[in-house]
């Protein structure tokens, strides 16, 4: 079975590098590309990806906002691939994971060093693993509050 991947990346160079890496695996098919989170939200129902790989910093809707929207509307595994997510960015990492991202991965560069080749294989393996992960819908607090209020009122009435 082919793993369907949606790439969300605003850098044309990074998009080419990611596509080249993922297309090197016979088990992975890039079914869509988006330059912003908003474009990705429109593509998801059309291309039905198994896994979404997104950048963190993008115009219009960043990776954190996209993750929150996807998990509320179209829950599926999300891998954040970003150059700027380092260990010192722990707050941002926790926000991404709390929003529903399954993992965070360093963005590969265009060079073909041995370390980079290992990183590329690790990315392919990670996507294969994530394709089997079952995720649950994560509703934003604003969507949960009215239902919670309704349940509390029902409890008070009984």
Explain this structure to me?
By secondary structure, the chain is of the alpha/beta class. It is built from six helices and five strands. It has helices spanning 12-23, 37-47, 63-73, 90-99, 114-130, 141-157; strands at 3-8, 28-34, 51-54, 78-82, 103-106. It has a five-stranded parallel sheet with strand order 2-1-3-4-5, sandwiched between helices. α2 (37-47) packs parallel to α3 (63-73). The radius of gyration is 17 Å and the shape is globular.
The portion of residues assigned to helices is 40-55%
Enumerate the strands of the largest sheet in spatial order, edge to edge or round the barrel: 2-1-3-4-5
Average pLDDT: 85
Strand content: 15-25%
The number of distinct helices, counting runs of at least 4 residues, comes to: 6
How many strands appear in the DSSP assignment? Answer: 5
Runs with pLDDT <50, length 5+?
Answer: none
Write the element-wise H/E pattern from the N-terminal end onward: EHEHEHEHEHH
SSE class: alpha/beta
Alpha-carbon distance between the two ends: 51 Å
* Major sheet size, sense and barrel closure: 5 strands, parallel
Radius of gyration from CA coordinates: 17 Å
Please render the helix and strand layout as text.
Blueprint: E1 3-8, H1 12-23, E2 28-34, H2 37-47, E3 51-54, H3 63-73, E4 78-82, H4 90-99, E5 103-106, H5 114-130, H6 141-157
Parallel strand pairs: 1-2, 1-3, 3-4, 4-5
């Amino acid at each position: 079975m082919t793993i369907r991947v949606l790439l969300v990346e605003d850098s044309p160079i990074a998009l080419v590098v990611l596509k080249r890496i993922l297309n090197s695996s016979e088990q992975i098919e890039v079914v869509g590309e988006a330059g912003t989170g908003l474009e990705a939200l429109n593509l998801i129902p059309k291309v039905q990806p198994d896994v979404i790989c997104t950048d963190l910093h993008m115009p219009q809707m960043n990776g954190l906002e996209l993750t929150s929207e996807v998990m509320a509307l179209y829950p599926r595994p999300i891998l954040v691939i970003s150059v700027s997510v380092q260990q010192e960015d722990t707050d941002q990492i926790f926000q991404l994971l709390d929003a529903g991202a399954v993992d965070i991965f360093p963005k590969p560069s265009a060079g073909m060093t041995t370390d980079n080749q290992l990183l590329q294989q690790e990315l392919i393996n990670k996507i294969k693993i994530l394709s089997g992960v079952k995720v649950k819908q994560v509703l934003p607090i604003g969507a949960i509050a009215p239902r919670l209020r309704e349940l509390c009122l029902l409890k008070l009435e009984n």
